[in-house]
Amino acid sequence: MGLTWTDTVPPNGLPIASYQVYCGPAPSSLIKVASTLNVAYNYTGLTAGTTYYCAVLAADTAGGLSVMSAPVSATTVALPNAPSNLTVTPNVNNTNVAATWTGTVAVGGLPIASYQIYRGTAPGSLSNIAARAAAAYTDTTVAHTTTYYYAVQATDTGGNVSPMSAATQIYVP
Fold this sequence. Notes:
This protein folds into 2 domains: about 70 residues, Immunoglobulin-like; about 90 residues, Sandwich (Immunoglobulin-like). A 4-stranded antiparallel beta sheet has the order 3-2-5-6, with no helix packed on it. The protein has a 4-stranded antiparallel beta sheet with strand order 10-9-12-13, with no helix packed on it. The protein has no helices and 13 strands. It is mostly beta strands. The relative contact order is 0.18.
């Protein structure tokens, strides 16, 4: 979350030594998160879909502190929902597997940019095998007499990644 503020005149008329940035989950529970010489700060490590409050005060070279600014709030973008209804089907010759799913809708978030398709031979060991813009993928690298598990994640235009869909199992004869 990017914060900016207007340069201020310190309380004693001395040069600014730093701006102290305070943030938290409520205006009454702000804690110091940074000290900077700039009139901007990028508050990172935040949880998606959460409201944060921030305020700033100036410290001069003699240690004098200005009054803290009024807290401002911002809500981080929510993560995309996990894709759902993943279906995997082998083709007639069992040489590839078609995967389709219900794409996620950005609810209060950003539009979906792509879907990452994962595959593995066990549900706990999936590897990313492709990325697609549409809610469909054909896997042409399957082997006969093998059980595969597939799952999908969505990434929005801000780079936020959804939870992974439920893994779906298929046996390729």
